[in-house]
Amino acid sequence: MDNNKSKLLTPNTFTLTQPMIISASRRTDIPAYYSEWFFKRLQEGYCYTTNPMNPKIFYKIPLDQANIDAIIFWSKNPYPMLKKLHLLNGYAYYFQYTITPYSPDIEKNLPMKKYLVDTFIRLSERIGKNRIIWRYDPILFNTTYTYDYHIRHFKELCQKLAPYTTKVIISFLSIYRKIQKTCEKQKLYSLDENEKNNLLKIFAKICFENGLRMEICSQELPRIENYPVFPARCIDLNLINELINKKLIIKKDPNQRELCGCAKSCDIGMYNSCYNGCIYCYASYQNERLEENKTRHDAESPILLGELPKHAQVIERNINTLANDQLLLI
Domain locations in the chain? Predict the structure, then answer.
């Protein structure tokens, strides 16, 4: 039987082959707002999530150690997880940690930057610098956040964070239709390609001087002499292979942008459930829905928001790890 096709199990349940790399999550900040729910789901060994394009379809995702190859956390404030990291023992995981130089006019509900930097350092000291990746993205511009502003603050952050990570991932803001009006209110503008490349050259020099690898997310690489720049792979198969000391065979994620280098993963978050208040966010853009969803979250529920309907159509992810049993020689 072809394992890549759905197989009918019960009137409402199917199986579907899926790489068991868990993304937690591009759609919301699970470490900041839903860590209690997440660790409860690890304890239970599964969670449910919905199909973003068809909310009537639900996926059952295995979360037990035997079947999960890696977990990638995306967060702007993972502090709530610091005291519970021991619950991740036995899992391969790392953090994509975003720290940008914006004030509450852009990132409304985030703590002070000093607090976020301190959390970054504490997390790195707990799990190791190779498992915490700094994200300086998105880069946006208006009369406050200028070309020179970014150079100054990027350098300051590099000097503070470089001892506690190995690389930084950078990207420029993409103004999606969902956030266009909000961005217009902030009078955001774009640089031309020459200006972007010049800024990236300066960033690359700063990274080189601070011993950081600089990667660019989902965008063309500039031609920079003397200072190396690399394409980003936020769901990084090479790093995951190092963490598990095995070799995963997983294709590029076809659901991401053309220049995205991420391996295929399974996201367990839900849209309109993050309360960081970032004006550039494409995943939480409906204020009315956000307020409603606050009342729908239950840390005891197997799904992030609400409950699984009694007669829901459920697609059960295949629970076979994709890791080759052969150990890597390091």
Answer: 7-327
